[in-house]
Amino acid sequence: MDVAALGKDVGGGAYGRPFPGIPARRYSWSEDIAQEIITAVVHVANELADLRLRESDDRGALWAATRGLQVAREAEQLWRLRFRAHALLGEERELEATIRSVEAMLLDLGYAMEAETSGTLRLLQMAKR
Predict the structure, then answer these.
(1) pTM of the predicted model, to two decimals?
(2) Is there a contact between 18 and 38 (Cβ–Cβ < 8 Å)?
(3) Which residues does the chain have with pLDDT short of 70?
């Protein structure tokens, strides 16, 4: 599968949650479909961002991770990729703003930060020293 090409196709049209105007209680059938779409977009965004980072295309990685987060803001694996991309681009202010954004999102949702996300942040802090 050509993840880069698929990412451009899927990511190009990924803006927010699928079926935003459909009332969940009235059309309960749509929830399963929406979750499948979200899962697919997050998967493709994750794969594409990771591929872009491996190919030293940090801007492309940032684009892919950000696209995925537009659909699923709670997808911490995409936040981690954003952290890495900002760090590799030397965008210290953007990195700090992104960290604050994920912390606020987690607080808003009542979620605890995943251990892997905490670990990524520790590694980035150590790399700055």
Answers:
(1) 0.81
(2) yes
(3) 1-24
pLDDT of res. 22: 65
Q: What is the 3-state secondary structure of the chain?
A: CCHHHHHHHHHHCCCCCCCCCCCCCCCCHHHHHHHHHHHHHHHHHHHHHHHHHHCCCHHHHHHHHHHHHHHCCCCHHHHHHHHHHHHHHCCHHHHHHHHHHHHHHHHHHCCCCCHHHHHHHHHHHHHHC
Residue 15 is predicted with a pLDDT of 58
Residue 54: which of 111, 126, 3, 113 has the closest Cα? 3
User: Which residue has 């990924």 as its token pair?
Assistant: 14
Query: Exposed e or buried b for every residue in 4-43, given b needs 16+ CB within 10 A?
Result: beebeebbeebeeebeeeeeeeeeeeeeeebeebbeebbb
- How far does CA 33 lie from the centroid of its chain? 20
Looking from the CA of 47 toward its CB, the CA atoms found within 13 Å total: 16
